Amino acid sequence: MRIPIFILLSILFMQVENLHASDVLTLESSGFETDWTGLTDFGSPQLILKKATAIATDVTGWKGDVGNGNLSIYQGPGFTGNYAAVLINTHATGGARFYNNSILSLTKGAKYKLTFYARGSATLVNVCLFEASTRPFIAHVAGPHPGGIYDTSKTINLPLSYGSVWTKHVYSFTVPEDAVYTDYKLYFAFYGCTAPTIDGSNMNSLFMIDDVVLEQNVEPVSQDTALAVTGQVSEGMLDRALNFRDAIKFEESYRSGVYVYSSRSMTTYINNPAKLAARIALLGIKDVYLSATASSLTGVDGIRYQWVRNFNHSAHEYGLKVWALRLANYNHFVDDNLILQDCAQVLQFNNGVTASQRFDGVSADWEPHVLKEGGDNTPSSLTYFWDSNNNYGIGNSNDLLLQRTHNMLSLAKNNLNGLAINEAIHYMYQNNYNAGLLLYGSTPQFLQDCDFVTTMIYTDTREKVWQRGLSVIDSATDYPASVSICVKTSLNTYGDNGDASTSLHPQGWGYLVDAMYYFYAQAAPKTAFRGIDFFEFEGLEMMWDDGGIPINITTLHETEDLQLNKLMSYNTLNATLDIGMIKQSAMLELFSIHGQKLLNQIIVNEEKISLEKFPSGSYIARLKFNAGIPVQYKFIK
What we know:
Layout (H helix, E strand, L loop, with lengths): L38 E4 L6 E4 L9 E3 L6 E7 L5 E7 L6 E5 L3 E2 L5 E9 L1 E11 L6 H5 L5 E2 L8 E4 L5 E8 L8 E9 L16 E9 L5 H10 L3 H13 L9 E4 L1 H7 L4 H10 L4 E5 L2 H5 L3 H16 L3 E7 L8 H16 L9 E4 L32 H17 L6 E7 H8 L8 H5 L4 E5 L5 H13 L8 E6 L20 H15 L5 E7 L1 H8 L23 E4 L4 E4 L6 E7 L4 E7 L3 E4 L7 E7 L6 E6 L1
Parallel strand pairs: 15-16, 15-22, 16-17, 17-18, 18-19, 19-20, 20-21, 21-22
Antiparallel strand pairs: 1-2, 2-4, 3-6, 4-5, 5-14, 6-13, 7-13, 8-12, 8-14, 9-10, 9-11, 9-13, 23-24, 24-27, 25-26, 25-28, 28-29
Helix pairs in contact: 2-5, 5-7, 10-12
């Protein structure tokens, strides 16, 4: 159960301020716990629901359509409390509206975050804030309309099919600076729900919502701000990143990874590896599978050799782990010496650089199912080939290729001096192993030779992704956090021939975030689930980018005639932070790179702040003025 909704305010570095009456917004019965009126029993032989007899008045604080879209409302079992709202609109296409009757007085220019939980099945037309004096039509809730505020990243008319799993939804709303209205109400629009059967046999299909919370967006903490500046993202991208991070449960023990390729993101950020690392970290991703070509490892390509060193250093500074994507040569299937050579090159690289520049592990990407007879990737000396139609069966070619893959993994693992290793696998291996068509290829067998597996599931809906990955996850219950599910966020990558049905990319950013909430809700009872991986960063970045202007918090208010390059600098000789002529008082704050506040003092004019007592490392200094945008300066002591 949630208490009535209120706005939680927090300033940039998580300092708590007192709430005032003007800060409080109320949605009545946000958890649907307040007593309902006029209910009648529903269910036989057992009572399963209670039906609202007057849908415009029986749910305290909420109203529904009377006679539109065949809407009925029931009181059902709650997500965190006793009750939820069961919303039944059986019309195939005609939408119904369900809205909170509280008037929400919002602030122009402010950002708000709506969260709620849903289960069952329906088509969600949209959720919006609409000006309080008008009752909108369904098309107005769908948007756009001048009286409404919408999350433009969301998919309109989104089919939901959650079964019994309560799944989190998050919407972001920004009140325009020039908005005509400041008073709004919250509206849901939906259709195509399932009516309850009298015996309760279809409870998992009934569309329910619970725990509806609206709060003002909490400002990012200091490290997020530093990452946003280093990553040169827009304010909108920062907001999107924080929502994405919530969806992949960044604060919990789950781990998400992303593939970064030499020909794509590495080339894009060839002059600024720290920017790439910061962008990845800002999204809450914790593992990077980085292209590690032989020339970049050995130094033959001096530019990329130094780039990898710099990227790994920045990635580690931001708490990421970096995996050398190296064991991916199909000639390895016929030559063990090439495997040993690849392992030796990774170890040689690690031994020749500083600790912060080393790889944390090796990511193998051997794909035996690609080795078709006469195929472009098939080594000429290979004598058995993959054929999904003809070569299954214990001891047949598909089985032999998987046996060879296991042997290759074992060889690599034993020649990496304890360095961690993971392997990318296809979901169909486990399915065919379960069917008795393979002796090799089960997930537990792979996990004997590597630390975890990444299951590549390239398709275009979240439901298909989860359905295909389920057998792999369920087979590894004895191996906690051992199976990552990799979704495709790119188009026109090698081998897909531009087939959009292999990717979530065309669905858009809002769908991707909703898919993350869906995956993690489904995975909650699955001990083997490690997290969601993404193939690959360039496509993910395209989805994330809102086209906005990068945050520039080293830009002051236009009325301040200050030379920014002289505001702050670190004097390495004297170990002082030198503050230039600022012409006004300001608050200086000093933070570690991880966000710990180390110093807080008022600066009146030019000053030299001794940092002698602080250890070597990366720091963030921030000048806050009474007016204008703060100035931030990152430096290394």
